[in-house]
Design brief:
alpha+beta; 2,3-Dihydroxybiphenyl 1,2-Dioxygenase, domain 1; 8-stranded mixed beta sheet; 6 helices; 16 strands
Length: 323
């Protein structure tokens, strides 16, 4: 099957679901406990090369370079990450929402678009066509061209790229009236991560775990046909508390195999999502290690979802993300 076609179809379903909640999907009695995305982590064998690519081609700026502390590595359940390079990047428009690049040991067969896990980070951009053209000679491999896959929203364009660590990004823009857009409005050429994608088997079970764990209301499931077969793949979203912040779930059969990783390391490519929450103690979740100050005085803790994906939670009231 054509992976690129299926992903474009998935975007169509996602945007429809964002705009139009299904029956029974009104505001939850308890507000979502995930407030917004704070960090999208990319794990790379050469983290400095990756960071330089984001700085040169996607207008991100390096905010600091350090080493992963032992406490942080243990909290991730990746003890051999201790001592690895850690680079924090953000845009001038959103300096406190980060792409973080962490050193890891490369292993064969870990292609993001052929394995389960965090499968893409989606960034809202100002000009998809112009950015697509500028990336043709860059460290980012363009996988698709900008297209408008949603008849309901013909002004929305999106394309996919593969970064230098094998990470996948969606780069999406709205060419219409910003006041009427369902997307966030970028205040620079490239925005921060708004949508965090997860792929893998039993994806609706995984979706339901996030919904139950974080008091999020499931949206309707869009079933997208798989070309050349009688089968279809589910695609659906959960909305975080703050506008335009989503988790997106896709049951793409090309991404059912576990993503291999070196023992004690983070999986390469799209490695982890980190989210703001109001109060870690109130969540009472099975964290890998108990919440503790990991970012200055900022408390954080990590847990695993049913497919083993790392979910880092950062307490907003104490959040200090200087590396």
């Amino acid at each position: 099957m054509s992976f690129a076609v299926s992903r474009r179809s998935a975007i169509a379903g996602a945007l429809v679901l964002m705009a139009k909640p299904g029956r029974g999907a009104e505001s939850p009695p308890n507000e979502p406990r995930l407030l917004s995305t704070r960090i999208a982590t990319v794990a790379a064998a050469d983290p400095h090369k990756v960071a330089e690519a984001y700085a040169r081609w996607l207008t991100y700026k390096i905010r600091g370079t350090s080493k992963v502390s032992r406490a942080l590595a243990e909290s991730w359940g990746a003890p051999r990450t201790a001592g690895q390079p850690l680079i924090m990047l953000s845009t001038d428009a959103n300096p406190d929402v980060f792409i973080r690049v962490v050193g890891t040991k490369a292993v064969p067969g870990a292609a993001v678009d052929r394995t389960a896990g965090w499968s893409s980070f989606e960034l809202i951009v100002r000009d998809a066509d112009g950015l697509h053209q500028s990336l043709q000679t860059s460290a980012f491999k363009t996988l698709t061209v900008p297209t408008s896959p949603v008849k309901m929203f013909p002004t929305i364009k999106s394309f996919r790229v593969e970064g230098p660590a094998g990470e996948i990004l969606f780069l999406t823009c709205d060419t219409g009236d910003p006041a009427k857009s369902i997307l966030s409005v970028p205040t620079g050429p490239v925005g921060h991560p708004d949508v965090m994608w997860i792929s893998g088997p039993d994806i609706l079970k995984v979706r339901d775990w996030y919904a139950s764990t974080f008091a999020m209301v499931p949206r309707p499931v869009s079933q997208k046909p798989i070309p050349g077969t009688q089968d279809s793949m589910p695609n659906t979203v959960l909305l975080m508390k703050r506008p335009h912040q989503l988790l997106q779930f896709e049951g793409n059969p090309e991404q059912f195999a576990p993503r291999p990783r070196a023992e004690g390391h983070l999986p390469q490519g799209n490695a982890m999502g980190s989210f703001l929450v109001a109060d870690l103690d109130a969540l009472k979740l099975p964290f890998i290690t108990p919440p503790r100050a990991l970012y200055g005085k900022g408390r954080a803790a990590t847990l695993l979802d049913p497919n083993g994906n790392r979910v880092e939670l950062i307490e907003e009231r104490t959040a200090q993300l200087s590396p």
